[in-house]
Write a structure and sequence with these properties.
The chain is α+β, with helices and mostly antiparallel strands and 189 residues long. It is built from ten helices and five strands, in the order H-H-H-H-H-E-E-H-H-H-E-H-E-E-H. Strand 3, helix 9 and strand 4 form a beta-alpha-beta unit.
Length: 189
C-alpha cells in the first residue's frame, strides 16, 4: 500500500470502520492529532504517516484468525443431571456422539460419555441398575470452556486432554467442539 497522503487518512479510516481514537491508539498518536491531520490543520512527519499507513494496511488485510464459533456445533445436545443414564445413552446414540455436557439451567455441572459408562460396567456395576441411575450420580467433571471469539488454536491443545470443549458467550453455553469438529477447517465444502 505504501505511505498514504494526509488527505487520504479520513476516507481510508472510514472505509475500514475505525474511529479516530482507535486509529490514534494503534498508531501511537492522540485522537486530537488524527483529527488535525484529517482536517488539514496538521502536517504530520513522514514517520507518523508511515505508522498510520501501516495500521490502516493491517486493518484492511483479511484476518488470518479463525474463531471457535466457526467450527463449533450448535445448538448443543446436552443432558440434565436429573435425567437417567438410559436417556443419556439414547441421546448419544440418536445424535451419533460419544459425550454430552451436563447442564443445569444453562450452567455446565459435569459431563457424561460412553467411556464413563463402559468403565462402570467393566468394573462390575450392574448394567440394569446403572441405566436407572441419574446422570448426576455418575457424571465426570465439566468440559473445559472457551469464549466463542477465541482463536481455534487454543482448542487444539485442550482437545489433547479433553473429549470436548464447551463454547460460551457471556458465560452461557452456545456451542460445543469435539475432535471431529477440528477437521471442518481441513475439509472445504
Amino acid at each position: 500500500m505504501g505511505v498514504i497522503k494526509p488527505s487520504e487518512v479520513r476516507a481510508m479510516r472510514m472505509r475500514l470502520g475505525l474511529s479516530q481514537s482507535k486509529l490514534a491508539k494503534l498508531a501511537g498518536v492522540t485522537q486530537a492529532y488524527i483529527a488535525k491531520i484529517e482536517s488539514g490543520k496538521a502536517d504530520p512527519r513522514f514517520s507518523t504517516l508511515e505508522r498510520i499507513s501501516k495500521v490502516l494496511e493491517q486493518a484492511s488485510a483479511p484476518s488470518k484468525q479463525v474463531l471457535v464459533e466457526r467450527i463449533m456445533s450448535s445448538p448443543i445436545v446436552f443432558i440434565r443431571p436429573s435425567d437417567r443414564v438410559e436417556t443419556a445413552i439414547k441421546t448419544m446414540k440418536a445424535h451419533d456422539i460419544s459425550q454430552l455436557p451436563v447442564l443445569d439451567r444453562e450452567v455446565q455441572v459435569g459431563s457424561i460419555s460412553e467411556t464413563i459408562i463402559v468403565r462402570r460396567v467393566a468394573s462390575g456395576e450392574n448394567m440394569a441398575k446403572l441405566l436407572r441411575r441419574n446422570v448426576g450420580e455418575i457424571m465426570d467433571k465439566p468440559f473445559p470452556m472457551v469464549p466463542k471469539d477465541a482463536d481455534v488454536g487454543i482448542v487444539y491443545s485442550i482437545l489433547e486432554h479433553a473429549p470436548a470443549v464447551l463454547v460460551v458467550d457471556h458465560g452461557k453455553p452456545v456451542g460445543i467442539i469435539t475432535k471431529a469438529d477440528v477437521f471442518k477447517l481441513a475439509v472445504k465444502p
